[in-house]
Design a protein that fits this description.
single chain; about 325 residues; alpha+beta; four-stranded antiparallel β-sheet; 8 helices
Length: about 325
């Protein structure tokens, strides 16, 4: 790898430019609600170090005896074991804090030769190598010794500064791009709602209606035809059922048909000329090739499910106006 480095760069180990140390195994019996915060593995997450409501503290008297485990502003801390192995962050607080076990501290040896942010940004690169090392065992972990031996391409100080400046410039652009994307998504959502509102109010097709006014079937006539066909379809299905059962249709059997309820338009806005309010019941089909499961459909038992048959529509398959295509259950 050193042969591929730019001229004046050097491949070195992290321990040559940084002091790397693990924390101390403080005892839980010494924890208290106020005092010196103890930085534990739970305080390191997503390239951030933060103290929250679950933070524990130690008495100030611990500072003298455990001064070697005291954190300084600018130190990099990294999780050394458990599910969060490899997560790291920069300690940026001006307050004092002590380092707990299972957390490593990376501190620079020479401030005049090292741009702190260069090492910090490079941690994002070597983290993948750290994870490969850590997850080689049943319990993810990495020692401070292994961390110390990681190789790092090390450029001259001035070039470190230029690299950090370029990274921060690009990250700033990226952050701005992400923020712009969020704003666009908000605008798209509003635009989508506006389009749908215009559609149901007839604004999207107002010019088209003017140009085709002599060819349009009024909505009340269309609804009459839909209701007529709906009833005829029901009657055909009933006659088929009678025939399958070997029975003759009883007197006035057509009277059992239930007309769908018309919509209550008392509080609804005015529609364009030729439009009418309707309901999903009037416009929907009377038959289905799927079964709805609870909470408003039938509650089925898992023991009745099978690989093929009539599909069951579960609540989890319907989300934000979309039907998920994952494999449903069958009856």
């Amino acid at each position: 790898m050193s042969d591929n480095l730019p001229k004046s760069w050097e491949l070195t180990q992290l321990k040559r430019i940084c002091n790397i140390q693990g924390g101390f195994a403080f005892k839980s019996k010494d924890y208290q609600k106020k005092g010196i915060p103890l930085l534990r593995i739970s305080n390191v997450n997503d390239e951030k170090v933060s103290f929250d409501n679950n933070t524990v503290y130690l008495a100030e008297s611990f500072l003298k005896e455990y001064k070697d485990f005291l954190l300084s502003k600018g130190d990099i801390v990294i999780a050394l074991s458990g599910a969060t192995t490899g997560k790291y962050g920069k300690f940026i607080s001006d307050e004092k804090a002590l380092l707990n076990q299972r957390v490593g501290r990376i501190r620079y040896k020479n401030d005049d030769l090292i741009n702190h942010d260069f090492i910090y940004y490079y941690m994002g690169i070597i983290r993948s190598a750290i994870l490969r090392e850590a997850y080689g065992a049943a319990q993810p972990n990495i020692s401070t010794k292994e961390l110390s031996n990681f190789d790092i391409p090390f450029p001259p100080y001035n070039e470190q500064n230029r690299i950090v400046s370029k990274i921060e410039e690009l990250f700033t652009r990226l952050d701005a791009g992400v923020e712009s994307l969020k704003q666009v998504q908000i605008l798209l959502k509003k635009y989508r709602q506006s389009v749908l509102k215009s559609a149901v109010e007839g604004k999207l097709t107002s010019e088209w209606r003017k140009q085709n006014k002599d060819e349009l079937e009024p909505a009340d006539k269309l609804l009459e035809r839909i209701l007529k066909e709906r009833k005829e379809k029901w009657e055909v299905e009933q006659l088929i059922n009678f025939k399958v059962k070997g029975k003759n249709p009883p007197k006035n059997w057509q009277n059992k048909y239930k007309e769908p309820k018309p919509p209550d338009t008392s509080n609804l806005p005015k529609l364009p000329k030729g439009w009418r309010w309707s309901t999903p019941e009037i416009l929907s089909s009377l038959e289905s090739n799927a079964i709805c499961a609870g909470p408003f459909g039938t509650i089925f038992k898992a023991k009745d499910f099978r690989d093929v048959g009539v599909p069951i529509i579960f609540l989890r398959l319907v989300n934000a106006g979309k039907y998920k295509t994952e494999k449903p259950g069958f009856m």
